[in-house]
Amino acid sequence: WAGTSKGIFNFGGAFATYGANQTPSCVRFTDRIRGVEGLWIGTDSGLLRQSTSGSIEALDGSLLPGYDPNTGTSPRVNFAVRVDGQIWVGTSHGVGRYELNGEPAGALQGVFDEPVDVLSFEQYGQDIWLGTANHGLRRRNDAGQWEPPYTTASTSDFLVSNQITGLAIRGDILWISTPS
């Protein structure tokens, strides 16, 4: 699957196209989530999901951080991952949660005290790492507690930018991608 500003395209097996008229805004990512049917699609204005019949449906974004009740617009969704029996989505204003069936479960509490653009996610055992656009790196330890943020001010010896564009774990090493 490939997501573009013109829609979503499937190049494996039978060719399938979901054009821009079926995806309301620019596609940020497409992903299959283990144990959950269908394709999950993050856009500039919320989360879509491909149903088992193949149609695309917009998921209710009213409980996501950054939802605008005046316009009914959901925030940009940067990723979706399965964590502890839920789907976590990184948005332009924090982390939201959905049940596996696509029902909204609200914002993730206790992580950020202001709107934060969450760009990346990585899990290592019970540890969870979140990379942000301008607020450094956040970690939930194996006890389920969120630690203070890692920023250039608090970790000048290893974090070169507060903009974390990607995360990856190889063995016991956390690789951090930044623009600097």
Describe what this molecule looks like in 3D.
By secondary structure, this protein is mainly beta. 0% of the residues lie in helices and 44% in strands. The chain is built from no helices and 16 strands. A hairpin with a 2-residue loop joins strand 9 and strand 10.
Number of separate strands: 16
Order of helices and strands: EEEEEEEEEEEEEEEE
The order of strands across the largest sheet is 4-5-6-7
- Strand residue percentage: 35-45%
The global form is globular
Mean pLDDT: 82
Count of runs of 4 or more consecutive helical residues: 0
Stretches where pLDDT is under 50 for at least 5 consecutive residues are none
Report the structural category: mainly beta
Calculate Rg over CA atoms: 17 Å
Largest sheet: 4 strands, antiparallel
Distance between the ends: 30 Å
Q: What oligomeric state is this?
A: single chain
In which range does the helix fraction lie? under 10%
What is the strand and helix layout of this fold?
Layout: E1 2-4, E2 7-10, E3 16-19, E4 27-32, E5 39-43, E6 46-50, E7 56-58, E8 77-83, E9 86-91, E10 94-99, E11 104-107, E12 118-124, E13 127-132, E14 137-140, E15 166-170, E16 173-177
Antiparallel strand pairs: 1-2, 2-3, 4-5, 5-6, 6-7, 8-9, 9-10, 10-11, 12-13, 13-14, 15-16
Q: What are its keywords?
A:
four-stranded antiparallel β-sheet, mainly beta, 180 residues
In short:
This protein is an all-beta fold. The protein has strands spanning 2-4, 7-10, 16-19, 27-32, 39-43, 46-50, 56-58, 77-83, 86-91, 94-99, 104-107, 118-124, 127-132, 137-140, 166-170, 173-177. The protein has no helices and 16 strands.
